[in-house]
Write a structure and sequence with these properties.
By secondary structure, the chain is of the alpha/beta class. It is built from two helices and three strands.
């Protein structure tokens, strides 16, 4: 995200947003940072292979996804 030379306005620019259950509370701030930089194509990738999700983190993840869906110009993949 600190790479200033990347043109995030190109149609083919996508970002993989990896969501970790241990840092789910930081996800909204990170997402807002992406919005501030003009990113609109986002691939949400929850980590499953090495980290266990529990009921609490799955609920937080669902709430996070519902918040993202309120943004009209964001395309989730």
């Amino acid at each position: 995200m600190e790479q200033k030379y990347i043109d995030v306005t190109k149609d083919n620019f996508n970002i993989n947003f990896i969501v970790n259950p241990n840092t789910i509370d930081l996800s909204q701030a990170i997402f807002q940072s992406m919005l501030d930089r003009g990113i609109t194509n986002i691939n949400i990738l929850p980590i499953y292979a090495t980290i266990n999700w529990n009921k609490t983190t799955l609920i937080k993840f669902n709430i996070f996804i519902q918040k993202i869906k309120t943004y009209k110009n964001i395309y989730l993949h």
